[in-house]
Design a protein that fits this description.
Layout: H1 2-10, H2 13-31, H3 33-63, H4 71-92, H5 108-143, H6 154-185
Length: about 190
Amino acid sequence: MNHILEYWTFVPTKMKILGIIGIVVIYYIYKYQELISDKMKIIGAASLFSMAALICVDVVARYFKHPIFGSVEIVSFMGVLVVAMTLPNTHSTNGHIGVEILVRRLPDKAMTIIDFCTGIISLSFFMIVTWKMFDYGMKMERSGEVSMNLELPEYLLIFVVSICFIVFSCNIFKDVIDNFKKLREK
């Protein structure tokens, strides 16, 4: 423990503050992840409904030679929101597709070990994806890039997706901890 404290003294104050804020944010996301996932699911469902409604209105408007300007951009943005917002809830409820032909026949301990290992790999992957999404969002903000027709700032959507990946990573982390506890009990 002392060697960690020695290194901690060399960390700049700004980095310490950001690290502590990050830990507090992740703690609350972990604590309220079910509530957050449910709210995100509602936002995703509203985006899906709005996307379908906008497409229907645009099709009718095109029939009368008055298409909705920027509808393709709005629909694509809402499609991204649908996927990103529902990802944590889908993982929590095991709603994703899994191929378990071989794994299903293994003993419980072997299945738990496989779940633990895939959880660690998934957690590592999505933490890197989250970090790179934030990095990409910062680059897009600095460049000032906007969408083609409506000139909406794209970096905001990238930041929303990266926040969704943080919640998703917390869900995976919770599963890894649960599988670790199962392995210790067996």
